[in-house]
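Page 47, continued from p. 46.
Same chain as before, 225 aa.
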Amino acid sequence: MNLPAFDPLWLTLRLAAVTTLLLLVLGTPLAWWLARSRSRIKPVVEALTALPLVLPPTVLGFYLLILLSPTSPLGAAWRNATGDTLTFSFAGLVVASCLYSLPFMVQPLQAAFEGLGRGPLEAAASLRAGPWDRFFRVVVPLSLRGYLTATVLSFAHTIGEFGVVLMVGGNIPGRTKVISIAIYEHVETINYADAHLLSAVLLVFSFLILLFVYVLNRRFRVRVG
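Result:
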């Protein structure tokens, strides 16, 4: 296998890294609101957030393809601002990946925030700590387990995406051809040697990611116990 065949792997890692960073920024306030809110619309927001877990990826990809197309308001605005399209581009893959991996970031963070209770925040407030100070000096350190789990799962889930990225990004080498699509292409062309190699890379990576999460959770349980 030639080195250029590993280009989809580097593109996939880049996509996973950018998606995970964006989800950390976007998912944190959403998870915090879900953990603290008593609003009547909370179940609706929770259902929308978890929708990618049960919705077929091709369905989500189809509607994203329409939403991000140059003829849509969002796609047209992006094209006017950047000169490029959201569909069949790396930026479009990032948008699709953020939506598809959103529950893998939000749900672990929401569980971690809910597990804190009100005691630590009330203690910090009694010491005259402001809202931002309480969050970054109390909530984040005490929710480190949730942050690590959410980050690892979001990163790993993005790497394994297929249906959504295929619908939104297609199969453009060096631009949207991620590793899952490359494996599918190798199988279609009966290039099983390259398909085996890339599949083995994903298999080992996925196992190590899950092993890391389980070991991490076990260590945290031992410390708490």
